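Section 3.1: Structural characterization of target chains.
Under the original work plan, the team committed to producing a structural model for every single-chain target entering the pipeline before any wet-lab resources were allocated. The record below documents one such target. The sequence was received from the expression subgroup and is listed exactly as submitted; it comprises 463 residues.
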Amino acid sequence: MRLLNSRARQRVGEIRLTRQQYEAIRNEVLQKAPLETGGVVIGQVAPSGRDFDVVAVTGPGPNAIHERYHCSIDADYAQLHMRALSEDKRNVPAADWHSHPAGLRVPSGPDQAAMAQLEADGYALRAHLIATVDTEGFHLDGFIKRLGCKIEPARIVFVEPDPHALFQRLRGLAGVDTLVKREVMIVGAGSGNSLVVDGLVRAGVASFSLVDQDVVSTPNLVRGIFEARDVGRLKTEVLRDRILSINPRAHVATFSHTIQEKQDALEIAAESADLIICGTDSQDANHSVNRLALKAGKPAAYGAALPEAYGGDFVLALPGQACYACVMSAISTPESAPGAPQPRGINYASGAAAALPPQPALGVNVSILAGVFTKLCLDFLMAGTGPSKGNVLFYGIEPKPPFTDSFQTIWQEVLRKPGCPACMTDDEFAARQGERPHGVPASLAEIIRSAKPKARIVPLDAA
């Protein structure tokens, strides 16, 4: 590459992006290594004609082909993103990014040929990002090709909000200053939990672990924070980008698999979390979260909507107190309280049958329930203790049984169940010696069978 003359060295072109966009590239490269990966960078040529302002960065897409020295991105996926941003005519797909697994930190021969072709196609400025990983860590190098000029190195410049101004409208609120030090683990990244995450990061929580294997589909767009350009993307990646778009200094780890997979990595994440927040559509998954929380000795919060989201139930399980399995064996069901809803639509089947089908509900109802759940979680993160009224909250938006009025709250205190197979103490184990080997946790099926409500249940109206 030809050396720049002294005048050019005084004013090197810039490629300006956010920390969020940088982290999106970094995470993708690390996940795909040692294979090559890449995507499209959409942005605007600055008035100077030398600089490029990044508006959005795409990943390779679900149908991309990754090889050791080549990546073919998913064209349909890239075009979907480009169409979503095409209303602003200043936005152009005048840049791309890809990794060089072999460590080459300058444009390769094929890279230079591609940039020359785009110049021939009429692009006045072409930006190019190359990502590499070596023993010194991750690198992102920028290059710019202007009409009639050679390829020139460009400075990578981060554009982000003033960290001192970001949360200035929260200052003075009791306990808020502690949230920046808190870490949460989010299990389930669907409509409700996506809103919970949004509320947590805006309140100041700055460390997240996100667990979900699902991708965004079109029906997700009417609830939660998802947009049309997110369709086909992993929900964990969308939430990660959302978090970093609000607070670029936040730390986000993603686990794009089920809660039952890669337990070692999840156990490490759980051990560093101050609260595990669960919002899944599967009793198997909820009980797996319960076991994870018990093993790590961490508090866990569980949230779920009742049919049509006319209400919801929320459980806070603290170490040494009633765990999720204890609560599920005690809360009311239709058989015990005439007219009462069956919380969580409990399904005691195992495997795929244990997942509840999607339920119709207005987005505003989901938003209200997510707001209540978020507030419960924030209160715990700030105070470190649970509500004084109980560990189970039923919140009714509409006056349907068991709720007699709109926006009604019903609290219930569920005590720990002696001999619970999920949270059994050593003394309780000794009393039941021989039922299973010491140190071997109860199987998921055993826990779920035990959690099934018995004949004697405390009715809701008794709380």
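Residues 1-10, 332-354, 436-463 have pLDDT under 50 and may be disordered.
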